[in-house]
Amino acid sequence: MNSTALSRPVVLCLSGHDPSGGAGLQADIEALLAQGCHAAPTCTALTVQDTVNVSDFRVLDREWVLAQANAVISDIPVSAVKLGMLGSVQMVDTVLELMQRLPGVPLVCDPVLRAGGGGALGKDDVGYAMRERLFPLSRIATPNLPEAQILAELPEGSADECAERLLPHIEWLLITGGHGDESQVHNRLYGRHGERHEFTCARLPGSYHGSGCTLASTLAGRLALGEQLVSAVRSALDYTWRTLRDAEQPGHGQYVPRRLPLDFCS
């Protein structure tokens, strides 16, 4: 058998496992495959959830997560890191330790604090720890507006108000829309030095399970491929919108993004 070196960039994903397959590590893997990247998935938490909501979760032991990720880092060059569900302050510490082995590697932080159905995926202090300790190491964070309000400690804050509170902690911030009733979804990208870009797209009917994971993983993949940040954000938003446009409803709850074409394995 002929061996061929891996030419696709590798993205280390630290995320939870969603048994419904809509979000979490499966979303990461599928989105990265679609970008032409190789996903290296490290499981941080196990969840009990379906397409309706999450009913329980268990964060894995710190030693297990370190062992998973360190095995990959010691073996494979990592081009980007994507964070999803962490679930505990101890897992924030774990990520900090791992990133010491990956200086200069772009980190995309998706601050998963709530499930799509509204259930909590960590205690309130997890958001504070992410903001204070992980954001300074991250190239970009991708909260939706409700998550940004939690992180900024502004329960009724606008995207602009949340960004003003959060940008001292991070270089770039993408606050995604879609949680109101507007006909256009407004996704706002803020830079620490005053840069601002707004990306709008048509609002799609229904609600979706795994859209945030899809966006953050795609963005990490685009950065791993060498795309510049603003362009990478635009590419990730465009791809994510298409996966939602083509989404399926496999269960009794939210739609699941179709991240891979039907003929992907044919």
Automatic annotation (TrEMBL):
<dbReference type="GO" id="GO:0008972">
    <property type="term" value="F:phosphomethylpyrimidine kinase activity"/>
</dbReference>
<dbReference type="GO" id="GO:0008902">
    <property type="term" value="F:hydroxymethylpyrimidine kinase activity"/>
</dbReference>
<dbReference type="Pfam" id="PF08543">
    <property type="entry name" value="Phos_pyr_kin"/>
</dbReference>
<comment type="pathway">
    <text>Cofactor biosynthesis; thiamine diphosphate biosynthesis.</text>
</comment>
<dbReference type="GO" id="GO:0009228">
    <property type="term" value="P:thiamine biosynthetic process"/>
</dbReference>
<keyword id="KW-0418">Kinase</keyword>
<feature type="domain" description="Pyridoxamine kinase/Phosphomethylpyrimidine kinase">
    <location>
        <begin position="18"/>
        <end position="254"/>
    </location>
</feature>
<dbReference type="InterPro" id="IPR004399">
    <property type="entry name" value="HMP/HMP-P_kinase_dom"/>
</dbReference>
<dbReference type="InterPro" id="IPR029056">
    <property type="entry name" value="Ribokinase-like"/>
</dbReference>
<dbReference type="GO" id="GO:0009229">
    <property type="term" value="P:thiamine diphosphate biosynthetic process"/>
</dbReference>
<dbReference type="GO" id="GO:0005829">
    <property type="term" value="C:cytosol"/>
</dbReference>
<keyword id="KW-0808">Transferase</keyword>
<protein>
    <recommendedName>
        <fullName>hydroxymethylpyrimidine kinase</fullName>
        <ecNumber>2.7.1.49</ecNumber>
    </recommendedName>
</protein>
<dbReference type="InterPro" id="IPR013749">
    <property type="entry name" value="PM/HMP-P_kinase-1"/>
</dbReference>
